[in-house]
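Exercise 7.
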Amino acid sequence: MMLLLIVMVSLVTVFESVQRTQVFTQERSQSLDSMRLAIDRITKETRQATAINASSTATTLDMQTYVNGVSTHVIYHPDATGTTLLRTVGTKNGVVLTNMNSTSLFTFTPSTTGAQLISITLSVHPARRPDTVLNLTSEIRLRNEVTT
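Solution. The predicted structure, written as tokens, is:
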């Protein structure tokens, strides 16, 4: 009887460990998928930008770009808490990414004015895993920039 109890406790412990690992893997995968979608959207709109506005900073990307063939003013910026990336078009805010770890997202080369290369770095905490940070980086060259 005692041997059966030991075997059962061992099996339950192994099962619980496998289940925790599976949940972590699933949440990590969901976070990476969200990051990829965000970076794809930002990259597409930035490549089509005709101008990167001077108000752009490491935390904010302010640009004039094409959305569905129409010239549109788009701003990517963190919310007040710094944990959510928003996309603003006109007066409408849309959530692009949540659980951000850092608000320092954009790097402009050589500088904000006349940027030829824009780097994006997204850092996210997976849900229920604040001790884990996922990073995804992309570089963008403008295709439609209008020089004056």
